[in-house]
Design goal:
The complex is a heterodimer of chains A (199) and B (180). With 199 residues, chain A is an alpha+beta fold. Chain A has helices spanning 22-28, 34-52, 55-81, 89-105, 147-159, and strands spanning 31-33, 110-112, 120-125, 162-170, 179-188. Chain A contains 5 helices and 5 strands. The chains are: A alpha+beta (199), B alpha+beta (180).
Chain lengths: 199, 180
């Protein structure tokens, strides 16, 4: 298994090893109480609101933090999932929803609302560990509490050469009935590598 | 077994908080950054402490003295957070406690990247890199210091908490309280 720190190839295949399911990976990693995660995230958002004051700025920073996390988390994903190169964006979305979310958050998402070109879809999260026990006060109008997640998805995909726009269409903390994350593929770098696969 | 997430989720959050506050929000004010990071830990502890307590007692326990309360932190609270207990507890019986964790989880798993930018210093580069690494490591510790301070505060022990990592991977948390 070659480590390419400088450049990430999109889902390089590791020959005879089958991809592992989200459940299997999640069972194999070190896990912690979801509450620790939920409460830590809540404390972070609260502190950001105190320090940055403007809700829009908090949204922006959460997204940026998510992006920074995503570009690193992709390494762990690739290392543990044995996912080979996805045929198309549809497969990519399924992998994020079933393997990616599961191995980190312990929950899966469903993929719906595909556009005709197959470049835009929605990830629906019914169970979202970020928001357990969370209620937004009225003073937080306009806050996208889970914005870190959209950043993570965007950052991770960018590391496998997909430039995307990720936005929240529905947010249960804002009164909607689900968490719906829209992922739109803007650009995919063609598959030409400056390095040979085998040396 | 309650709901779980991967440990890398929590560690990613912490690493990112240190990075954001340390290099973006308060880039040249490490003391301010440190205070914010510590404050997040302090808040976090407030909520988490309540949850941990629910598991071990029906209502808020009334510890007979500070030592009992600290022992709760060292055993039950620490186990909930780090899946192990504090390895060694020392006290001077005058309000100072030292909690030693020989393999502090959050430090041992993190790769601590020293900050890439150097603001044109004449210092020897290897010493500078070492300083940066030490600074980064200590930034990571403000959060758990806040957690301990928050937990103790919830137990009625206001105090100040600092960390000492001169013996990595062991980490010593020093709790100083004015009261006895």
């Amino acid at each position: 298994f070659e480590e390419t720190k400088a450049q990430h190839r999109p889902f390089t295949s590791m020959a005879p090893v089958a991809p592992r399911s989200g459940d299997v990976i999640f069972a194999s990693v070190e896990r912690v109480n979801a509450e620790l995660f939920t409460l830590t995230y809540g404390a972070i958002v609260r502190q950001l609101i105190t320090d940055l004051e403007e809700v829009e700025e908090v949204n922006k920073q959460l997204d940026q933090m998510g992006y920074n996390i995503g570009i690193r988390l992709i390494d762990e994903f690739l290392a543990k999932s044995n996912v080979s190169r996805c045929v198309d964006f549809k497969e990519t979305a399924e992998v994020i929803a079933k393997v990616g979310f599961k191995m980190f958050l312990g929950v899966t998402a469903s993929v719906t609302n595909w556009d005709a070109e197959g470049t835009c879809c929605s990830l629906i999260l019914e169970d979202n560990p970020l928001v357990d026990f969370v209620e937004l006060p009225d003073t937080c109008q306009g806050l996208y509490y889970c914005n870190i997640l959209s950043g993570v998805v965007r950052g991770a995909l960018e590391m496998v050469s997909m430039k995307t726009e990720v936005t929240w269409l529905r947010d249960m903390l804002r009164g909607d009935d689900a968490f719906e994350l829209q992922v739109k593929l803007l650009k995919q770098v063609p598959e030409e590598y400056p390095y040979k696969d085998d040396e | 077994m309650g709901k779980e997430v991967s440990e890398s989720c929590v560690e990613s959050l912490l690493t990112e908080i240190v990075s954001s506050y340390g290099t973006r929000f308060y880039a040249n004010k490490p003391e301010l950054a440190a205070r914010r990071i510590e404050a997040i830990g302090y808040q976090d502890a407030g909520y988490y402490y309540g949850l941990v307590l629910d598991r071990y007692t029906m209502e808020r326990p009334r510890f007979s003295d500070h030592l009992e309360a600290i022992k709760f932190i060292c055993k039950d609270f620490w186990s909930e957070l780090f899946k192990k207990q504090i390895d060694n507890l020392k006290t001077n019986h005058r309000g100072t406690f030292v909690l030693q964790d020989n393999q502090f989880r959050w430090l041992s798993h993190m790769s601590i990247d020293p900050s890439p930018e150097n603001s044109g210093s004449t210092q020897d580069p290897s010493a500078m890199a070492e300083n940066k690494a030490a600074e980064a490591a200590s930034m990571h510790l403000y959060f758990p210091c806040g957690i301990i301070r928050g937990a103790l505060s919830n137990l009625g022990i206001p105090c100040a908490v600092s960390a000492d990592i001169s013996n990595l991977p062991a980490c010593e948390f020093l709790s100083l309280s004015a009261l006895n």
